Fold these 2 entries.
Entry 1:
Amino acid sequence: MQPYIQGRNVNLTFRPPNRGPVRALQNFDIDVNEGEFLSIVGPSGCGKSTFLNVILGLIRPDSGDIRLRGSPISGPSTDRAMVFQDFGLLPWRTVQANVELGLELKGMAADARRKVSQPLIEMIGLAGFEGHFPHELSGGMKQRVGLARALATDPSVLLMDEPFAALDAQTRDLMQVELLRVWQQDKKTVLFVTHQIEEAIYLSDRVMVMTKRPGRAKKIFPIDLPRPRDYEMRVTPEFNELKLQIWNELKDEITV
Amino acid sequence: MEIVPTPAQEADSGEAPRRSFAARHRDKLLGILAVVLFFAAWQAIFLVVPFNKLFISKPDLIVLGLIDLIKSGALLRDLAVSAIPFICGMALATVVGVALGIVMGWRRRVGLALDPLMTVFYASPLVALSPLIVVYFGVGFGAKILIIFFLSVFPFIFNAYAGVRAVDPLLINVVRSMGGREIDLYLKVLMPSVLPYIVAGARIAIGRALIGVLVGEFFAASEGIGYAIARFGDLYALDKMFACILVIMVIAVAMTEGIRWAERTAFPWRAQ
């Protein structure tokens, strides 16, 4: 069976002005199955986020082949949506208007948008906050809005670029639980970039470790822990064994 | 697991519901008190210092002069004459300044090329060139508009420029990633980002445009409020001269505060 997302020999070099070229991805291969939750961990600057932007269609690789359901990715489309690390909420838009942004860009009428956004806003627990502006929300609430906005266009692939990195530790734990609850409902294909091994294991079906720059897939760990998962799972021996294995693979790539 | 969201900002917490008028408006009353004291001191000083109405006026005479100007209709006529070039000059400055500022911000090279030149113009005492404008364009409407325009265009340029540069590239990517086209970037990201900067620019520009009106009419007019000030000065009618200045002051404060109010009302999404 053909993988849902397939990357072969993806190469990408940034050529920033006034500086030397930076090789971000080199011979990067990836296979993602439909409905799979795949996390990518790797050292800072290894090209994880760059790769998400390639899938999103914002960055074109220099060479290589990247396909979604067999067709090459040529640009942004509403079948893929990103949840950004710094939320990326438009500050002049209310919660509701932010959630409806993608629908508005598709040209959907206001009452039809409302029918989509309202259940999403309720699902993320922000009913009653529809008219609030981002500056009135906590970090966790902002990222719920970011998640609802990404889900509003009903994409088949959800890209998450360190979505919880800007949150405090407790909020982060709760958001992970929340994300799994949401994901469990319709099992979208998720590509989740993180620095935190524990977060990657807790959420994922598979965890991919990347090498340092230029980034390649180094090793993939299947996470055969049962679902639904709860917080207690994090203290089981199996969980800790995986944590240790992944850390051993990752630590050689990290230079301080 | 139940997650209960908590608003980041609590509503005003248990403040005493009834406070005296003075307590509630203490900050503003302090400011008003200083203004009142200033005029009282101005009035009172002539109890000690000899008063010569050829060199100075005092508040009671100014008020009488003001009433006189209002009754005769001269004040209203002069204000109406001055309002037209003020509005035209400001409108022209808004259109040109905003357009130029946005291009400077959006096209990096245009910005780099024009920034120093514009800074030089902004910092230079353009008022000093007013007599030249009169020489070139004669006494009248055109010269007035040009002087007002040159004085008030730069806050628009620099604020629009700063506004565009402050646009968060992440938000551009957000809209692009959702299939937004070029026009969506302008309407949904650029415009709302820049608008508060432009309005703030207008607040600065108004003060400068008023100076433009007065200076323009000192040099390039035979009517208008600036001309009236100059003429009353020449006639040693200092009570009326000060009355006109007072009116300009009130107008300037009213317009500036009006824009402040508009900023608070139009941009509720900005954190206070």
Entry 2:
Amino acid sequence: MRRLLSVTTALVLTAGMTAPFAQAEEPKKGGTLVMAIQQTPRHLNPAVQSGTATGQPGAQLFAAPLRYDEGWNPQPYLAESWEIAEDELSVTLNLVKGAKFHDGEPITSEDVAFSIETVKANHPFKSMFAPVESVETPNEHTAILRLSKPHPALMLAMSSQLLSIIPKHIYGDGQDPKAHPRNGQDVVGSGPFKFVEYTKDQHVILERNDDYFIEGLPYLDKIVMRVMKDGSARTIALENGELHMSGFEQDPLNLVRLKKNDDLTVSDKGYGAIGPINWLAFNTQAEGPTSDPIVRKAIAYAVDTDFMLKALMRGTAKPSKTGIHPDSPFYDGTVEGYDLDIDKANKLLDDAGYEKGSDGMRFGLTVDYGWPTVKPPAEYMKPALKKIGIDVTVRSSPDFPTWSKRISNHEFDMTIDNVFNWGDPVIGVHRTYSSDNIKKGVIWSNTQQYANDRVDELMELAGSTNDIEKRKKYYAEFQQIIADELPLYPLFPSPYHTISNSKVGNPPDSIWGTSHPLDRVYLKD
Amino acid sequence: MTEPTLQVTHPLREMATMFFRNYTAVFGLILLIAILIFTFIGPLVYQIDPFEMVWAPFTQPGQDEYLFGTDYLGRDILAAMMAGGQVSMAIGLAAAIISVVIGVTVGAFAGYYGGWVEEVLMRFTEFFQVLPTLLFSMVIVALFGASLVTVTFAIGIVSWTAVARVTRSEFLRIRELEYVTAARSGSAKDAYLIFRVILPNALPPIIVQANLMVGSAILFEAALSFLGLSDPNVMSWGQVIGSNRPYILDAGFAVAIPGFAIFLTVLAISLIGDGLNDALNPKLRQR
């Protein structure tokens, strides 16, 4: 007999249920929300496509078993309750009864099993469902996930855009799900909004799902997601009220400008699970000096992250000392930092025998960058490291693939990089440090080629238990080692912000930004 | 009573006289010399590394002893202007030389030989002429990476067509003149005729064209840098504009100062070119 470890009892999702925090006014029904997305989605099916361009409309079209509140707590969504077995090797989902797809077919445990299989086979984040060996469906409303080992990332992987419940009767027709014709047109989903129209480079239009399984929701009649690639254009559209809302805004100057507008709310809440961090990555196996941890430390002491936050990011980003996002419960802010200390950096290099030449330089290094928004931190390295006698050459790449090829083939000394945490560290963090994941030619693998047995062990331990306190302990030690050996030096998280104007009620503030069901968002008069 | 002698002046002297009689051209020359002194002598006096972060970012011009203020990383814009001027001028000059070498070669052969050689070479020229120049140079820089050499080469390769056309038309005219026929009847070889007989006489309009080319090359470099297609390890005026462009609303001076310097330099070069054109034009000389 399995003993139930946790049973969620918040089953009743009735009409009139509002956001978890107290609202002074009653949400109003109706209205069309106009928001921006920054790229054209390849298609609208997040089960086989990562990225926020697909995720933002995808999270409206498709429901997931779980959703998360702003405190990283799983909440019932399509699963009204769930249990984790004592041995942590199986998870039972109890689905909401009477839930229907947009075409009227019932959502059953078969669909959940099918969705998990599809995501496991096709989604780029392989670690999400890798330990799921099988999904049993004893009855229509129960799905049991059998695991090969305890898998703490599973809960987050079942939320938001990461596990979209897709209809088996449509996607199970034997066609390749990645190229399925129904991914972009005539999409039949399970979420709060139904598909109306998708025009490439123009917009995605969604309308209210009247048969939504949470009664009384959603509040909005319609959502128009306009594809607007230019940040200045979005800024102006937000200022003049053309747009109600825009998520994932990160340009510091636009943010500073938008913050001055009294009609707009600029919030950095809700991006902890996306967890984007900019860092200075080192080639730890280079023939050059970056393979020496002392050199990496000296560089960290010479790089003034405080200056970057103030001058480059204009105070829109918060400090991040490790490769785990500061909003994550596993973030350890107590690690040894590298406050600016030029003397110490010089002394480290002197003691290690890196003599200064007649021109005052010890050696030369290159720093790469792959896209224009990270040019400033790359340019910054040149004058900053000159102070400790390192002659930096900034290497610009004509396009992203060139950069990606250089870095993934380990042909670099240092590079500015930006990697997302994607919820649980198992999904987005381990890949950067695991010695198993040194994969030539694969970008955002362990391109630093960092290998440490203890780090591998800690990730293994933290990745196979659901005990959050234990995991915190493992990740704390992990972060201490990383901060000491510095395969990369974190600079700052990308300052993602959600901008909404005063008409928008309940703007999303969960951990997934605007890649979150907008069923409780409403428009005021 | 002495017999009146014919006053013969050296053509160069005559040209100089004509040039210096033209006040706007002289103004351009003085301006260019001043800019050259600023960029080449200035750094000897004002020894600050243009890449070094010396002060708080976006210090206003004139404040805290920084005449032109500081840029987004707190680098001294005055130092960047001096170092950047050298690079901008060097790029301008080198790109102009590249385009003159290509242009003169193509134009000379086309004009001298005529026939199918001209046909092929001029269609080739037209091919380059119809390409949108900025776009084409962007493609070159994007393909081969943003370094000083590729940027210079990209500018040179897109701007030689005008030189080729001018050279060709001059050759078409001069090859029919008596002294060319005379030289040819003296069994002069083609190469001799092209480079020793015709080219020196075709030079005046080419010189004017080349001079203007320097100005447009500087502008071109600035345009490429503005779009972020410049070597980040080399300070040039365009680079200063390009890297401070995102902050234009906050600190317009960091963009305006190098922009004004480019304006002055191109103006000076254009005025000189205008003056040279007048001075080298034999018809005007008779006035």
